[in-house]
Amino acid sequence: MGAIYETVKRIEAAIERRRLPLYKTRGLIALRAGFLLGMVTPDTPDDPLRIAVLKAAAREVLGEEI
Amino acid sequence: MSIKLKVVLGVLASMALSALGNVRLAAWLRREDVEAAARQALRTAAESYADLEQADVEKLSAVLEGVSADPSLAKAFLRRDRPRLLELAGPVFAALRERHGVTHWYFHDPEPSRTCFLRVHAPALHGDVIQRPTFEAAVARQATASGTELGRTAFALRVVRPWTRGGKLIGYLELGEEIDHFLRRMRRQTGDEFAMLVLKERLDEKAWTATRGAARNTWGDRADVVVVNSTADERLLGWQGRVQDLPEGGRVLGLDRGGDRAFVRGAVPLADATGARVGALLVLHDVTALDRGLQDHYRGVSVVVLAIALGASVLLVLLLERLVFRRLERLMARMEDLGARVAGGDYDVAPDAPPPSGDEIGRLEEFFARFLRVVGGALSDLQRRQGRDG
Q: Chains A, B: CB contacts under 8 A, how many?
């Protein structure tokens, strides 16, 4: 399981914990990150730049560090 | 700057320009109406002058007809008895002067001498050959001739009639009157003020100056013309144009607003019996009532136009807001929401799109819904395939 997949899972957990609409919140983060979170699988290779962009997008939308 | 603000500013600017244009148009129409009144006043003055002349010609002709039938006058004339003729004509002339303003009465010898046998108004002067145009016309046509002629000091209306006894020409009778009273009578008829200008070259300065009496000598006031008669309104006398430059029908000289009154000025050319242009008649017509009426009328029109422009602007902005901008904002919010949901994995958002309304924005909404359906379907297939492959 790659780090980017782990990050996606942590984002989804945060959305659920905060009772936010799942698809819309994921979509807002995806639009900011520049790729679809649904396409990230356990086999997706890690890319430090993509992980950093994803975390920054999640911080912007959710207002918390992932 | 948002499109909405730009459109609103554009609409307001268009309406303001339109309203301004209408206000300018109203002002122009007002000027045109006042000028039309001035042209009418000029026509009326010219017609009034011609009517007065015609009426006085008829009056003098009737008097001539009466005196020509007097056998005692004819007898004295044929006997060349000037004292007797003066004795007979003098009392008649005094009555004509008193009642009808007749100022000249002549007895002329027939051709070939064509000399003046007697001036009843100036008995000491006689024996001179008469060459005035009206007399020439009567001789040429052997019929009554009339016309205004410039003497040495002023205009005079003259009527000359061939004098016959038993079908034989014995001479000519002529009556004349100064036409100073024309302006006073025209003023009474029309309420306008008048002044008569005559070219100096047609007058004798010394003789004219002598007629001024105690009044100021105004011969030098103007370069080429002199005011021979006026209904005494100095506002008339501001015109400094050339008589020769006036068009046949006259010219409106302008609108003067002084205090609470408004006047239009105009000038019509004057010709003598030969048709030669010898002066001008200046007219001052009071248009205060018309000017005020038009001012009120066009002020009302301007207020209505401004109110309509303002109302139309508000209506247009409200319609744009309701039909375009509010729907664009809703469409934008929906696109952001559905777009985010598709990006988040909700690939079946198309049914949430609003029903198409058929107008331009509705077609955009419909296109966007179809696009989401296609993209959502493609992403869904891709994700399923990825899951299978994974």
A: 50
From B382's Cα to the closest Cα of chain A, the distance in A is 8
3-state secondary structure B182-209: HHHHHHHHHCCEEEEEEEHHHCCHHHHH
Q: A28, A37, A43, A60: which to substitute to probe chain B, counting the most B Cβ within 10 Å?
A: A28
Residue of A nearest to B342 (CA): A27
> B232: pLDDT confidence band, cut at 50, 70 and 90?
low
Q: What is the ipTM of this complex?
A: 0.85
Q: Which residues of B touch A24 (CB under 8 A)?
A: 337, 340-341, 344, 346
Using the beta-carbon criterion (under 8 Å), do B345 and A42 form an inter-chain contact? no
Tokens of B171: 């001479």
Burial bucket for residue B120 (CB in 10 Å: 0-12, 13-18, 19+): buried
Quote the CA–CA distance of B278 and B150 in Å, as a whole number. 8
Cβ-contact A62, A25 below 8 angstroms: yes
pLDDT along chain A (66 residues), means of 10: 92 95 94 91 91 96 92
**pLDDT (tens digit, 9 = 90+) per residue, B291-344?**
888 888 888 888 888 888 889 888 988 998 888 889 888 888 988 898 899 889
